[in-house]
Write a structure and sequence with these properties.
four-stranded antiparallel β-sheet; six-stranded mixed β-sheet; 14 strands; alpha/beta; about 300 residues
């Protein structure tokens, strides 16, 4: 459904994303996670055809999305920096979108507006930030897109509306077979709705796998020996993090958890304890590759 192929996007001398590739299946929700400034918005705008890639391409339904109105009519992008026509109401914006999106459904628009408790006749610039995000999601889903791109779209929503928005996305994905890409710097926002996660760091996708694969592909172990051991002795184990306190080893390993545990036990330790990592812990391990000195700041 969506193919991002070796995409690089620059702003002058600054490279925002570099040689970035991934695939999104039909009828799936792909979570794009990364710290603020990692390039998520640049990537989504390139996927939406707002930006042209400096190299590589984004293909949707087999066609390049940039400068392709036929493809863009099947795609709706909800940006982080929302834009509405000056003094426009939701009704006015609905009429605007109807001129561009042939599948725009006024029935869906009316039902979603009522569900979110939004007054369609009031000026959107008088709405709160959270209400404006709800308004744009209502308008976007009313276009009945085949692909929905959401940039930090849960930001500013209260817990009840956030939960309702997630349920709506799941329902729409199942009902219409829509492919949804939703970005966030907060993994908690995505873990319960996404079937696939991409972690973006250092201009690239550093992890791209299903949520189930991610949960089962990395684990923390505490291993106690009756002798002194060095990291070099852990052959055949893909170690991501390693620390040693006397004869106690704490390590995080990547790979099949059961296979790693079997290799550790073959080293004849006194004890092996396994602690599966949460998605958030995996995220932090990939993102926090810088050690910060927080001492002496407040002297």
């Amino acid at each position: 459904m969506i193919d991002v192929i070796s995409v690089t996007k620059k702003y002058g001398d600054f490279t925002a994303i570099k040689d970035l590739s991934f695939h999104v299946e039909k009828a799936s929700i792909y979570g794009l996670v990364g710290y603020n400034g990692a390039g998520k918005t640049t990537l989504l705008k390139t996927m939406a055809g707002v930006f042209k890639a400096d190299s590589g391409e984004v293909r949707m339904f087999g066609d390049n999305v940039f400068d392709n109105p036929a493809v863009k009519q099947r795609v709706f992008y909800v940006p982080d920096d929302l834009y509405f026509k000056f003094n426009a109401s939701m009704e006015r914006m609905a009429k605007f979108y109807r001129n561009y999106y042939p599948k725009f459904s006024m029935s869906t628009f009316d039902k979603l507006s009522e569900l979110f408790g939004l007054d369609k006749t009031k000026k959107i610039n008088g709405f709160s930030k959270g209400m404006q995000r709800q308004a744009e999601m209502v308008l976007g889903m009313s276009t009945l897109p085949d692909i929905l791109l959401l940039d930090e779209s849960f930001d500013g929503l209260d817990p009840a509306k956030r939960n309702m928005a997630k349920k709506l996305l799941l329902e729409y994905m199942v009902e219409k077979g829509c492919s949804i890409v939703v970005s966030s710097h907060n993994l908690h926002e995505l873990a319960d709705i996404c079937d696939h996660i991409g972690l973006i760091n250092g201009q690239r996708i550093v992890i791209d796998c299903s949520v189930d694969e991610m949960s089962g592909s990395r684990c923390k172990f505490r291993v106690i020996f009756d002798r002194d051991v060095e990291q070099s002795e852990f052959e055949g184990i893909n170690i991501k993090r390693f620390s040693k306190e006397g004869k106690i080893i704490n390590l995080t390993a990547e790979g099949d958890n059961d296979t790693v545990e079997e290799k550790l036990r073959s080293m004849s330790p006194l004890l092996v304890e396994k602690f599966p990592l949460s998605l958030e812990e995996i995220f932090l391990e990939e993102m926090e590759d810088t050690e910060y000195d927080l001492t002496k700041i407040f002297e």
